[in-house]
Fold this protein.
Amino acid sequence: MHRFYDELADLWPLLSPVEDYAAEAGSILNLLYELRYLGNGARPRLLELGAGGGHTLAHLTEFVDATAVDISPAMLEQCGKLNPEVECIEADMCSVTLDREFDVVLCHDAVDYLTDTGQVRRMIRTAWDHLRPGGLFICAPTYTTEEPIDGQVETDQNRDGHRCVTFMSYLYDPDVNDGRFRMVLVVITDEAGQVKVFHEEHELGLFSPKTWLTLLFKQGFQPQRITLKASPPRDLERCEADQDAVPYPVFVGMKPSAAM
Ligand SMILES: C[S@@+](CC[C@H](N)C(=O)[O-])C[C@H]1O[C@@H](n2cnc3c(N)ncnc32)[C@H](O)[C@@H]1O
């Protein structure tokens, strides 16, 4: 288990603030409206695989009945605090078995942690097994081979009164042919002058759109690559439009109605 999602989990609201997920969650809601999973009077049942601290879900729960799966109990605790109405289940997204079906399965940035196609195949199978016929799978990896990742840096700093958390991530790719890359994370916490520094390296997966579409197709989905732009939901001005938002790809697959 990464320390980031274990002993540092209580810093998640400061490391990756829930507001930062509003526009992206808004674009997912827009997609659900467009594809008629929302807006028809029904409240879809949504399963998020790798829901982490529930920051995406926090912007969706007004419209969907959500279930969260994550491998980290500490992250699920954060998720439950933020989203008391969400059922939180500790499990691996590649093997979890819940004996019920959902209208929508979402796998957002947690999918970055699947580092080979065997794992991706199992996660896609999990999504398939938990969808009703006609249900929708949305998979939104942060990174694909379409964008160069080597050397990308992100920094952020947030406070909550007594704590100040400074965060930096750095991406590098030691072998551009192996479908993986590495993320170095540095976190500095300052609690009233008590300064601590953590660093950790995570291995993440990097797949081409063609790989995503092929794996979805092989499972039986009707796959599509859709470009979303982080934006407010169409008829609800809940999420602020992010002027700097760049379009990002998501891979969606509908489970055919006649699927066995
Ligand atoms: C970047 S965080 C997700 C944050 C989340 N989108 C949110 O809204 O707070 C990545 C999450 O993936 C989870 N994760 C990584 N591998 C997993 C797996 N095989 N099964 C389930 N969860 C996994 C980690 O425990 C972590 O909580």
